[in-house]
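Figure 2 data, in text form.
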Amino acid sequence: MDGKADQLSPGARIHGTNNLLVLSGSLVGQTMWVNYTRDTSGLLSEIWILTEAEAALERNGTKPKRFFFF
């Protein structure tokens, strides 16, 4: 995340731009904008891949923009 390694939680779900589940292996080598949540252990549990239009929207509480590199 932001150039640093991060770990998915067991059972983590990655939602594509069409909101269907995506396997992490199909995303290797790609850079994309995402929203995400962490579980109580600090691991990534839910990830939503954003479209360009969604990534361009300003949201309350999101100061730095983040990208995820698989």
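Caption note: The longest strand covers residues 8-15.
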